[in-house]
Amino acid sequence: MTAAQPSGFAFTVTGDEVVITHHGRRATVLRGRPAADFLDDVESGDDQQLMARVTGQYRHGNERTARNHPRNAGR
Predict the structure, then answer these.
(1) CA atoms of 65 and 58, how far apart (whole Å)
(2) Domain for residue 29, yes or no?
(3) Per-residue pLDDT tens over the stretch 56-68
(4) Looking at beta carbons, which pairs linking 59-67 to residues 24 or more positions away fall under 8 Å?
């Protein structure tokens, strides 16, 4: 089973801030060094995946699989 690719993320740079939105709603704001690191990383990788991780909207494949396991029914 392959995990679904994250989508719906966008970011805007205003001054020293990076505002990340998910489907038009503000998800997080990065300032200072984290914002600079994010901008460096987004140029060299998958921007949707990176924004999903930064905002906490990311599920590892095994977490998604575990959610469907019978022992976790009703949780």
Answers:
(1) 14
(2) yes
(3) 866 555 556 666 6
(4) 59/3, 60/3, 61/1, 61/2, 61/3, 64/3, 65/1
Into how many domains does the chain fold? Answer: 1
Give domain status of residue 38, yes or no: yes
Residue 15 structural domain: 9-64
Q: Above 80 in pLDDT, residue 53?
A: yes
25 has a pLDDT exceeding 70: yes
Q: Which two tokens stand for residue 23?
A: 């489907």
CA trace torsion 57, 59, 65, 68 (10° rounding): -20
pLDDT of residue 7: 81
Is 72 domain-assigned?
Answer: no
* Residue 73 located in a structural domain: no
CB 32 within 8 Å of CB 47 = no
Average pLDDT, the chain: 82
